[in-house]
Amino acid sequence: MSGNLLVRLHSLGDVVLASGTAVAMSRSGPVSFASRAVYEPIIRRIPGDIKPIPVTGSWIELRRVSQNFSTIVDMQNNFTTRLAFTGRDVKRFRFSRRLRRKVLLGSGITLPWRAEEYLQTWSDHGNPSPGLTRLETPADGRFTVGIVAGGRWPMKTIPPGVVAELARLFCDIKGAQVLVMGDSGDRPLAERIVEQCGYRSVKTVAGEGGISRLISRIEKLDLLISPDSGPAHLAMALGVPVQVVFTSTSPALGFWSGDFKGAFMVNPVPCRPCHRHGGKKCTAGDEQCRRMLVPRDLFEEAMCLVQ
Hints:
By secondary structure, the protein is α/β, with parallel strands linked by helices.
Protein backbone atom coordinates (compact mmCIF):
# COMPACT_ATOMS: atom_id res chain seq x y z
CA MET A 1 0.00 0.00 0.00
CA SER A 2 1.21 3.51 -0.79
CA GLY A 3 -0.11 6.95 -1.64
CA ASN A 4 -2.63 9.36 -0.15
CA LEU A 5 -6.41 9.07 -0.28
CA LEU A 6 -8.55 12.14 0.42
CA VAL A 7 -12.26 11.52 0.92
CA ARG A 8 -15.01 14.14 0.68
CA LEU A 9 -18.15 12.65 -0.81
CA HIS A 10 -20.28 15.82 -0.96
CA SER A 11 -21.35 18.67 -1.19
CA LEU A 12 -20.15 21.04 -3.94
CA GLY A 13 -18.96 23.75 -1.55
CA ASP A 14 -17.15 21.29 0.71
CA VAL A 15 -15.40 19.61 -2.21
CA VAL A 16 -14.14 23.05 -3.29
CA LEU A 17 -13.10 23.89 0.28
CA ALA A 18 -11.07 20.67 0.44
CA SER A 19 -9.04 21.64 -2.64
CA GLY A 20 -6.43 23.55 -0.62
CA THR A 21 -5.78 20.47 1.49
CA ALA A 22 -5.51 18.31 -1.63
CA VAL A 23 -2.81 20.65 -2.97
CA ALA A 24 -0.92 20.52 0.35
CA MET A 25 -1.12 16.72 0.39
CA SER A 26 0.17 16.48 -3.18
CA ARG A 27 3.47 18.00 -2.11
CA SER A 28 4.26 14.74 -0.33
CA GLY A 29 3.15 12.51 -3.19
CA PRO A 30 0.25 11.73 -5.55
CA VAL A 31 -3.24 12.20 -4.15
CA SER A 32 -6.40 10.33 -5.04
CA PHE A 33 -9.57 12.28 -4.23
CA ALA A 34 -12.64 10.09 -3.67
CA SER A 35 -15.94 11.88 -4.21
CA ARG A 36 -19.28 11.51 -5.95
CA ALA A 37 -18.92 11.26 -9.70
CA VAL A 38 -20.80 14.55 -10.21
CA TYR A 39 -17.90 16.45 -8.58
CA GLU A 40 -15.18 14.99 -10.80
CA PRO A 41 -14.93 18.19 -12.93
CA ILE A 42 -14.03 20.14 -9.78
CA ILE A 43 -11.32 17.70 -8.73
CA ARG A 44 -9.79 17.76 -12.22
CA ARG A 45 -9.33 21.53 -11.82
CA ILE A 46 -7.31 21.21 -8.58
CA PRO A 47 -3.64 21.95 -9.37
CA GLY A 48 -1.07 19.29 -8.56
CA ASP A 49 -0.79 15.52 -8.87
CA ILE A 50 -4.41 14.84 -7.89
CA LYS A 51 -6.56 12.11 -9.41
CA PRO A 52 -10.34 11.88 -8.97
CA ILE A 53 -11.84 8.58 -7.89
CA PRO A 54 -15.60 8.67 -8.59
CA VAL A 55 -17.54 6.67 -5.99
CA THR A 56 -21.21 6.04 -5.27
CA GLY A 57 -20.82 6.43 -1.51
CA SER A 58 -21.21 2.75 -0.60
CA TRP A 59 -19.11 1.82 2.45
CA ILE A 60 -18.16 -1.49 0.81
CA GLU A 61 -16.91 0.37 -2.26
CA LEU A 62 -14.94 2.81 -0.10
CA ARG A 63 -13.39 -0.04 1.89
CA ARG A 64 -12.28 -1.70 -1.33
CA VAL A 65 -10.83 1.53 -2.71
CA SER A 66 -8.98 2.33 0.52
CA GLN A 67 -7.03 -0.94 0.49
CA ASN A 68 -4.63 0.59 -2.04
CA PHE A 69 -3.59 3.53 0.17
CA SER A 70 -1.31 3.87 3.16
CA THR A 71 -2.69 7.28 4.22
CA ILE A 72 -6.40 8.08 4.43
CA VAL A 73 -7.72 11.57 5.16
CA ASP A 74 -11.45 11.41 5.82
CA MET A 75 -13.04 14.85 5.40
CA GLN A 76 -16.57 13.40 5.41
CA ASN A 77 -16.42 11.55 8.73
CA ASN A 78 -19.95 10.18 8.67
CA PHE A 79 -21.31 6.72 9.44
CA THR A 80 -20.47 5.48 5.92
CA THR A 81 -16.81 6.48 6.01
CA ARG A 82 -16.29 5.37 9.61
CA LEU A 83 -17.66 1.94 8.72
CA ALA A 84 -15.60 1.79 5.52
CA PHE A 85 -12.33 2.57 7.29
CA THR A 86 -12.84 0.49 10.45
CA GLY A 87 -9.52 -0.81 11.69
CA ARG A 88 -7.47 1.64 9.61
CA ASP A 89 -5.30 4.48 10.88
CA VAL A 90 -7.27 7.44 9.51
CA LYS A 91 -6.91 11.21 9.82
CA ARG A 92 -10.50 12.37 10.40
CA PHE A 93 -12.01 15.83 10.19
CA ARG A 94 -13.72 16.56 13.51
CA PHE A 95 -16.68 18.89 13.50
CA SER A 96 -18.20 20.40 16.65
CA ARG A 97 -22.00 20.32 16.47
CA ARG A 98 -22.05 21.86 19.93
CA LEU A 99 -20.31 24.99 18.62
CA ARG A 100 -22.64 25.15 15.64
CA ARG A 101 -25.64 25.03 17.96
CA LYS A 102 -24.19 27.99 19.85
CA VAL A 103 -23.84 29.95 16.61
CA LEU A 104 -27.43 29.16 15.63
CA LEU A 105 -28.61 30.24 19.08
CA GLY A 106 -27.07 33.68 18.61
CA SER A 107 -24.04 33.34 20.87
CA GLY A 108 -22.00 35.73 18.75
CA ILE A 109 -19.18 33.25 18.18
CA THR A 110 -17.88 32.28 14.73
CA LEU A 111 -16.99 28.76 13.67
CA PRO A 112 -13.44 28.18 12.37
CA TRP A 113 -13.03 28.41 8.61
CA ARG A 114 -13.84 24.98 7.20
CA ALA A 115 -10.94 25.04 4.70
CA GLU A 116 -8.51 25.71 7.54
CA GLU A 117 -9.95 22.87 9.60
CA TYR A 118 -9.58 20.55 6.61
CA LEU A 119 -5.91 21.45 6.30
CA GLN A 120 -5.30 20.94 10.01
CA THR A 121 -6.78 17.46 9.69
CA TRP A 122 -3.91 16.66 7.34
CA SER A 123 -1.14 18.92 8.64
CA ASP A 124 -0.40 22.24 10.29
CA HIS A 125 1.57 23.40 7.26
CA GLY A 126 0.40 24.82 3.96
CA ASN A 127 -2.17 27.21 2.58
CA PRO A 128 -5.80 26.22 3.23
CA SER A 129 -7.22 28.58 0.60
CA PRO A 130 -9.25 26.71 -2.02
CA GLY A 131 -7.91 27.03 -5.52
CA LEU A 132 -8.97 25.70 -8.90
CA THR A 133 -7.18 26.12 -12.20
CA ARG A 134 -8.79 28.84 -14.28
CA LEU A 135 -8.58 27.98 -17.97
CA GLU A 136 -10.48 30.96 -19.40
CA THR A 137 -10.97 34.61 -18.55
CA PRO A 138 -13.61 37.17 -19.56
CA ALA A 139 -13.60 38.18 -23.19
CA ASP A 140 -12.48 41.72 -23.95
CA GLY A 141 -15.32 44.13 -24.35
CA ARG A 142 -18.66 43.63 -22.65
CA PHE A 143 -18.86 43.40 -18.86
CA THR A 144 -20.44 40.03 -18.00
CA VAL A 145 -22.25 39.32 -14.73
CA GLY A 146 -23.72 36.07 -13.45
CA ILE A 147 -26.55 36.13 -10.90
CA VAL A 148 -27.56 32.86 -9.23
CA ALA A 149 -31.34 32.49 -8.89
CA GLY A 150 -33.23 29.85 -6.93
CA GLY A 151 -31.66 27.09 -4.91
CA ARG A 152 -32.47 24.10 -2.77
CA TRP A 153 -33.12 26.12 0.40
CA PRO A 154 -35.72 28.87 -0.22
CA MET A 155 -34.73 31.09 2.70
CA LYS A 156 -31.15 31.26 1.40
CA THR A 157 -32.10 32.46 -2.08
CA ILE A 158 -32.08 35.99 -3.48
CA PRO A 159 -35.71 37.08 -4.10
CA PRO A 160 -36.62 36.96 -7.83
CA GLY A 161 -37.65 40.63 -7.90
CA VAL A 162 -34.26 41.62 -6.50
CA VAL A 163 -32.49 39.52 -9.14
CA ALA A 164 -34.52 41.16 -11.94
CA GLU A 165 -33.92 44.71 -10.70
CA LEU A 166 -30.23 44.00 -10.12
CA ALA A 167 -29.94 42.73 -13.69
CA ARG A 168 -31.55 45.95 -14.97
CA LEU A 169 -29.08 48.06 -12.99
CA PHE A 170 -26.10 46.25 -14.48
CA CYS A 171 -27.54 46.64 -17.98
CA ASP A 172 -28.48 50.32 -17.57
CA ILE A 173 -25.35 51.52 -15.74
CA LYS A 174 -22.64 49.16 -16.97
CA GLY A 175 -24.05 48.04 -20.30
CA ALA A 176 -23.56 44.51 -19.03
CA GLN A 177 -24.47 41.10 -20.34
CA VAL A 178 -26.28 39.33 -17.47
CA LEU A 179 -26.57 35.55 -17.16
CA VAL A 180 -29.22 34.25 -14.75
CA MET A 181 -27.77 31.02 -13.41
CA GLY A 182 -28.96 27.99 -11.45
CA ASP A 183 -29.52 24.25 -11.82
CA SER A 184 -32.17 22.49 -13.90
CA GLY A 185 -34.78 22.82 -11.15
CA ASP A 186 -34.31 26.60 -11.15
CA ARG A 187 -34.88 26.96 -14.89
CA PRO A 188 -38.59 27.97 -14.74
CA LEU A 189 -37.85 30.61 -12.09
CA ALA A 190 -34.87 31.93 -14.08
CA GLU A 191 -37.04 32.20 -17.21
CA ARG A 192 -39.67 34.20 -15.28
CA ILE A 193 -36.94 36.53 -14.00
CA VAL A 194 -35.65 37.11 -17.54
CA GLU A 195 -39.21 37.80 -18.74
CA GLN A 196 -39.82 40.18 -15.83
CA CYS A 197 -36.58 42.00 -16.57
CA GLY A 198 -37.43 42.41 -20.24
CA TYR A 199 -33.90 43.17 -21.48
CA ARG A 200 -32.30 41.43 -24.45
CA SER A 201 -28.93 41.46 -22.72
CA VAL A 202 -30.34 39.35 -19.86
CA LYS A 203 -30.69 35.63 -20.53
CA THR A 204 -30.88 32.43 -18.54
CA VAL A 205 -28.35 29.60 -18.63
CA ALA A 206 -29.88 27.76 -15.65
CA GLY A 207 -29.74 24.00 -16.02
CA GLU A 208 -27.59 24.07 -19.16
CA GLY A 209 -25.06 21.31 -18.62
CA GLY A 210 -23.58 19.94 -15.40
CA ILE A 211 -20.84 21.17 -13.09
CA SER A 212 -18.25 21.22 -15.87
CA ARG A 213 -20.37 23.69 -17.84
CA LEU A 214 -21.06 25.72 -14.69
CA ILE A 215 -17.32 26.06 -14.04
CA SER A 216 -16.74 27.10 -17.64
CA ARG A 217 -19.40 29.79 -17.43
CA ILE A 218 -18.26 31.16 -14.07
CA GLU A 219 -14.59 31.45 -15.03
CA LYS A 220 -15.51 33.69 -17.98
CA LEU A 221 -17.46 36.15 -15.80
CA ASP A 222 -16.26 39.55 -14.64
CA LEU A 223 -18.45 39.16 -11.53
CA LEU A 224 -20.73 36.62 -9.87
CA ILE A 225 -23.53 37.45 -7.43
CA SER A 226 -24.78 34.44 -5.56
CA PRO A 227 -26.45 33.24 -2.39
CA ASP A 228 -24.26 31.41 0.11
CA SER A 229 -24.00 28.32 -2.10
CA GLY A 230 -21.78 26.12 -4.26
CA PRO A 231 -21.43 28.45 -7.27
CA ALA A 232 -20.08 31.17 -4.96
CA HIS A 233 -17.37 28.80 -3.72
CA LEU A 234 -16.48 27.88 -7.30
CA ALA A 235 -16.08 31.56 -8.22
CA MET A 236 -13.91 32.27 -5.19
CA ALA A 237 -11.65 29.28 -5.92
CA LEU A 238 -11.36 30.29 -9.60
CA GLY A 239 -10.39 33.85 -8.71
CA VAL A 240 -13.60 35.42 -10.03
CA PRO A 241 -14.90 38.40 -8.00
CA VAL A 242 -17.95 37.17 -6.10
CA GLN A 243 -20.53 38.91 -3.97
CA VAL A 244 -22.17 36.44 -1.59
CA VAL A 245 -25.63 37.55 -0.46
CA PHE A 246 -26.24 36.20 3.04
CA THR A 247 -29.88 36.03 4.04
CA SER A 248 -30.72 33.29 6.55
CA THR A 249 -27.12 32.04 6.78
CA SER A 250 -24.02 33.90 7.90
CA PRO A 251 -20.21 33.85 7.58
CA ALA A 252 -20.30 32.82 11.27
CA LEU A 253 -21.11 29.27 10.14
CA GLY A 254 -17.49 28.91 9.02
CA PHE A 255 -17.70 28.43 5.27
CA TRP A 256 -15.90 31.68 4.43
CA SER A 257 -12.57 33.01 5.65
CA GLY A 258 -12.46 35.84 8.14
CA ASP A 259 -10.91 38.19 5.56
CA PHE A 260 -13.47 37.45 2.81
CA LYS A 261 -14.45 40.82 1.29
CA GLY A 262 -17.50 39.82 -0.73
CA ALA A 263 -20.10 39.30 2.01
CA PHE A 264 -23.33 41.29 1.73
CA MET A 265 -26.16 41.22 4.27
CA VAL A 266 -28.77 43.55 5.64
CA ASN A 267 -28.45 44.58 9.28
CA PRO A 268 -29.65 44.15 11.90
CA VAL A 269 -31.23 40.69 11.66
CA PRO A 270 -30.88 39.22 15.16
CA CYS A 271 -32.16 35.75 14.19
CA ARG A 272 -29.45 35.19 11.55
CA PRO A 273 -28.18 32.52 11.11
CA CYS A 274 -31.36 30.57 11.77
CA HIS A 275 -30.51 27.31 9.97
CA ARG A 276 -27.28 25.56 9.03
CA HIS A 277 -28.41 25.18 5.40
CA GLY A 278 -30.68 28.20 5.12
CA GLY A 279 -34.05 26.66 5.89
CA LYS A 280 -37.32 26.36 4.00
CA LYS A 281 -39.44 28.71 6.12
CA CYS A 282 -38.77 31.85 8.12
CA THR A 283 -38.88 30.99 11.81
CA ALA A 284 -39.60 34.65 12.69
CA GLY A 285 -42.38 34.89 10.11
CA ASP A 286 -41.24 38.13 8.45
CA GLU A 287 -38.35 37.10 6.12
CA GLN A 288 -36.57 40.28 7.14
CA CYS A 289 -33.20 38.99 5.92
CA ARG A 290 -34.57 38.70 2.36
CA ARG A 291 -37.30 41.35 2.33
CA MET A 292 -34.93 44.17 3.24
CA LEU A 293 -32.47 43.54 0.40
CA VAL A 294 -32.11 46.68 -1.73
CA PRO A 295 -30.93 46.03 -5.32
CA ARG A 296 -29.13 49.41 -5.60
CA ASP A 297 -27.12 48.63 -2.45
CA LEU A 298 -26.21 45.22 -3.84
CA PHE A 299 -25.12 46.79 -7.11
CA GLU A 300 -22.91 49.42 -5.49
CA GLU A 301 -21.24 46.91 -3.15
CA ALA A 302 -20.66 44.51 -6.04
CA MET A 303 -19.01 47.21 -8.15
CA CYS A 304 -16.61 47.94 -5.30
CA LEU A 305 -15.33 44.36 -5.65
CA VAL A 306 -14.40 44.76 -9.31
CA GLN A 307 -13.09 48.32 -9.08
